[in-house]
Amino acid sequence: MLRRQLFCLLLFLCSSLLAQLPTNTILVKGAEPSASDAKTPLPETGRIADNVYENRYFGFSYPLSSDWSEPYSGPPPSDSGTYVLGEFVPSKAFKGPIKGTILITAQDLFFSLIPPRSAKETIQYASDHLQPYYTIQDPPSELTIAGRPFARFDYMSPVAGLHWYVLATQIRCHVMQFILNSRDAGLLDGIVRDMNRMKLTAADAPPCLAGYADENVVSRVEPVLNDHRFNSIPVRIIIGTDGKVKHVHVISAFPDQAKIITDALVQWRFKPYLQDGQPADLETGLLFGYSPPRPQMPSTPRTTAPRETTGDVSSQ
Amino acid sequence: MTTRRVVPLALFLSSMFVLQGFAQTDPGVRGGGAAAGSPLASVAANSPVTVLDFFNDGKSRFQEIDSVKGTIGGETGFGLGPRFNSRSCAACHAQPAVGGTGAAVNPQIADATADGAQNTIPSFITQTGPTREARFVFFTNANGTPNPNAPNGGVEDLYTITGRSDAGPCTLAQPSFSSQLANNNVIFRIPTPTFGAGLIETLSDETLLTNQQSAFNNNQGITGTFNHNGNDGTISRFGWKAQNKSLELFAGEAYNVEQGVTNEIFTQERPLPGEDMGIIGGQSATNGLPANCRGNATPEDHTNFNQTSISTLSDLVQFAMFMRLLAPPTPSTTVPGGATSITNGRNLFISIGCAICHTTSLTTGTSSFTSSLSNAQANLFSDLEIHHMGTTLADNVSQGGAGGDQFRTAPLWGAGQRIFFLHDGRTKDIQAAILAHNANGSEANGPSFTFFENLSTGQRQDILNFLRSL
Q: Terminus-to-terminus CA distance in chain A, angstroms?
């Protein structure tokens, strides 16, 4: 009898637990990223393991000091193609008297809300538009980190006593920024030095080109969005050598929107991209849904960024 | 990104804050008289002529207590229920003055049994707790368990008119709050203050988009977006998720949902979510509200053809007009902490990145109502964008384009005299509200972390003083 009662109690407790929704969990998502396949690396799928941040899409790995970690993941990519790749802070093992943050972001240059179309332009734009409550410590400059061209500028807040070092490079038509923040400039100098331990290759990345889809589409099936959410839906695609879409990355959309767009895009056909006279894979972007007001854009050639594994920042 | 590290470190950070306490403290609700509730300056000057009459009439209606038939003494508003959360606009929008947010004493305690009503007070409604509405995250299965494939998110009114002296034979059951609380399937919202609402309404979409663009390259990884009206695609801006386009829509929905009064925008008596489809879990199909609970002709609030002047207007129109003509809160320049601390706190607040979302000021367009709304500085401390706030604040309710963890940047004007913070009123401590910005998936991790880890105790205190000066 007692065993039976205990069994019933256990059953009741189990069923209660099963019914309970988890806490601190986002169960009802809004616009979110999705992809047509699970194999192709995506910008937002970087991971940290053994204190090394690795991102296969951008082809880089960044070893962190052992006393830094990532307490919280960032938000999903935005409808303007902004990614928070990682935000690192000192862990409890950190011995320094003053703390700081390392924020790594990427801005998709196809969907940015502001004019810059390169790392150098982004840094110059940030310097030119610095708010009056900050002062520039070091104006925009160019440097090489881990064998790769970067643009950089430093500023500070006198009232807060905080320093920001902003270092930007360009990969796959994204501006990747390392934003370092602390009251201790010496701490930030050390982080910059340590950035030389990064590996930045992106060797397998296809070239990327703005506007290719619009100008080279041969046939298309229009995605019919039958909702009224008025959200922007940025999409990256990789066009194969046969002119077919071999990968769709919907950066921000509601699931029903993403399915409609993906189902349509895989039916599009393009003129194959030619590199040195030979068909080659190409990555480009398309914007669906609501198109927000845009700033005056630079001319198309400045958005061309073929195989950005080497070269001068100023040429990007 | 690194889930293995997230939980232990988050727990460590949280425990550090909790165990050690904060060296700096929230000064609490700013004392003195209410620094809000007055009409805009041009309205007070009665420009244009008679506008002040409209403000005063709107305020009077805003304070009116509703009953089912409007025949109870002191409760002359008409159309309460059959389901409701409270009986008057001003009951919920009360702190620190009519038009504000939840007061120190929760009116929903008295509402439960007023005029003979027989409601059970849910556990999350207390005498000194936040004034709240409740929503179920998911619809439930037949056995009452949440169905994660059926998002709900609609308001579950706390009370019914059953038993009231003016309810007639209407018999309705309250939602099963206790079982859904046990299922962790209930979220809460508190009233948003409406001071300065006319300034918010007068901001052009272009101004908001330009502000978004100017804050775009912010070096904090913050990128908000806007919620939009599903009819015309313009930016919506009222409500916790910016789900409402205009003050009339905001007022009309609240009148119907919170008080159960049908009106010219929301014309039908509102059942609970699913009640009209017979899908309320664990209960038999009810097919909507019983006829004997819908005793009034609809809409209960409407244009009054047999009246003259202001009296012809519906309550809905006048509620909106009252909110539209309310002046924004007046910040203190010296309290708490003194002028130097407040000024320093403001500069720090901006410098560490809080003002990326909590935009200090936006300029309104040209208003046809009254001059104080035209080309005015709205010091609202909000960009009116919706931002991902992550797992700690997520309420898993989707409204328009806003997902489960996206919220409109809460305008901070008047924060100095608010009692409860965050969408569900979970805290009275403004520091706890800042800490809640730290979470997986939050856009605000950077500024919040900087506040707690990269500023001195004195600097943090300055920011808290500044926030309580608003």
A: 79
For A77-123, write each residue's pLDDT tens digit: 999 999 999 999 998 888 888 889 999 999 999 999 999 999 999 99
Looking at the DSSP bridge assignments, the partners of residue A244 are: A269
Q: Which residues from B are below 8 Å from A78, CB to CB? A: 223-225
| Chain B hits for A49, Cβ within 8 Å | 2
User: Lowest-pLDDT range, B187-191, B235-239, B273-277, B410-414?
Assistant: B273-277
Mutation pick from B2, B16, B183, B184 vs chain A, by most beta carbons of A within 10 Å, is: B2
CA distance B343 to B169: 60
Alpha carbon distances (Å) from B339 to A17, A108, B81, B333, B462: 53, 43, 48, 6, 10
Residue A5 — very low, low, confident or very high, per pLDDT cuts 50/70/90?
Answer: low
B230 touching A (Cβ < 8 Å): yes
ipTM score for this prediction: 0.91
End-to-end CA, chain B: 37
Check CB contact of B348 with chain A, cutoff 8 Å.
Answer: yes
Please state the length of chain A: 316
Mean pLDDT of A229-257: 97
B456: Cβ–Cβ under 8 A, 6 or more apart, which residues? Answer: none
Verify whether the Cβ–Cβ distance B10 to A72 is below 8 Å. Answer: yes
Round to whole Å and give the CA distance between B305 and A92.
Answer: 70
Taking CA B189 as the corner, what is the angle to CA B184 and CA B193, rounded to the nearest 5 degrees?
A: 165
Which residues of chain B neighbour A43 with C-beta distances below 8 Å? none
Q: Quote the pTM value.
A: 0.92
- Give the count of beta carbons closer than 10 Å to the beta carbon of residue B49: 7
Contact B109, B125 (CB under 8 A): yes
